[in-house]
Amino acid sequence: MASNKIVIIGGGVIGLTTAYLLSKDKSNVITVAAKHMPGDYDVEYCSPWAGANFLPVGAPGSAHAKWEANTWPVFEDLARNNPEAGIHFQDSIIYNRLKDASSDTAVWFKELINPNPWYKDIVPDFRPIPKEKLPHGFDNGSCFTSVCLNAPVYLAWLVSQCRKNGVVFKRAVFTHIVDAAGAHHSGQKADVVVNCTGLSSKYLGGVEDQKMYPARGQVIVVRNEVPAMYSVSGTDDGPNEAGYIMMRAAGGGTILGGCYQRHNYESQPDPNLAIRIMKRCVALCPELVGKDANGNQRGIEALDIVRHGVGLRPLREGGPRVERDNIGGVSVIHNYGHGGFGYQASFGTCADAVALVEKALDEKKRRARL
Fold first, then answer.
1. How far apart are the C-alpha atoms of 46 and 50, rounded to whole Å?
2. Minimal CB count within 10 Å: which of 66, 157, 203, 337?
3. Domain 4-366 falls in which CATH fold?
4. Which residue ranges does the record assign to the FAD dependent oxidoreductase domain (predicted)?
């Protein structure tokens, strides 16, 4: 049986998930070629910095919402049956303040903070929080069972599943997407190249998508544990600052965030922002630090810090690009621009990309028979 030679550019969650799904078809012979791979920590490489979790933000009826809806069953199954994937169930608590409506965070979280969201029908135990149980200052809230991923463990798990299915990984940097067609490990030209380069699609020759831009995120990883995930609609520290807490599976620590700074490429943590984040998170969940021997509430000095981190979410005006292209005679499938929802939309968007790959391969075979 003739094989399909496929090169996937990009080693983040989107590239790896695309490779994993494609590798289930044994006729696909796949090379993942990327500058960064799981185990790396670089501001250019967004995936290991993610929380990550499942907190739907797609607008009702949108492709984004469909991708999230199609990803949840996979994550739910992995959390139940594949502990090695680094995913566990965690209660998610969402708080909303009406005064945050115009903030970057509230716009980002618009559907998440909706009292009657579409996702209430797919996640377990969705329920509104009674008014009398809301913390002071919040207008409404909800809670449901979600999942939190240990991003580095999960990325490594995706690599392991790909390798079981024969996927070859190699490090490479391309100045032009056409060059990727020559990177297949067989030494032959690839039939299809899948572009999963995220923010780098802004600079990759042949693509140079000027709709791409970063939304900078900054987090603190701590050893302190929390009983649930927490997310809020906004803060009093600025319209692009956020408040969220989540505890990664498998001893991955607790993530304190954050911010949503559009068009900001700064790679170094801002110490003043870090202090604001920690103060917000302690106020949001006092159990994070608990009380001292005298019964007094502890402050941020009781946080046991592992590291500070910065990641650049790969946003795209108009939403992700999942479509076919032909560049310099090379059949290309684009799958990039997922912003801050790459994990929670991954299986949905990558399934669509796989369908496009299959269509491109079928058309090539039909042309060859003419």
1. 7
2. 203
3. Rossmann fold (3.40.50)
4. 5-350
